[in-house]
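seq:
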Amino acid sequence: MPRLLVRSIVVGLAALGAAGQAIIALVLVAALLSVVGRPALLAFVRRLIGGYEHWLAFLVAALATTGSLFFSEVAHFTPCALCWYERICMYSLAILTLIAAARGGRRAARWLLPVPVIGAGLSVYHVLIENGLAPQFMACLLSLPGGCGMKWIDEFGFMTIPTLALTGFALIVAFLLFAAAGPKPPHHVAE
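struct:
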């Protein structure tokens, strides 16, 4: 694949990550406003995505999975040890959220929530390592030169691969929380 095309895709994925962070910021502001007695924005967001929470979680997980495969298989960025653990969480979410969306069960969100929370924790630790704020464990140092602190991309001055993963996990957590808190379906749906 031509280098310019790879670079364009990397920038495009970073831009999607930045858009995802804007969505997370909007949801956080809506939640904070709701806590202080102004629930209108949160209610609007819930109405906007109502019924599509699992599909949105699947979309994020599928994009993140595709992006990680692009980074390793097309751009030839070698995944470090933490990247593999993050991938285990994200790849499984791509399958599990698709199943939950296709079946239409709301209770699945509660069972799925631990997976993106664990993935987000791994991503936070990875971001801390990248920025020299946490020590690397031996598996990191052995996984590739530079260990888990290697920055394969650094778009817009902050968007790295672990930051993209963290953004994906945070979006999935938000969508699953909306699904778990949403109104019960009017009729019994098999879960």
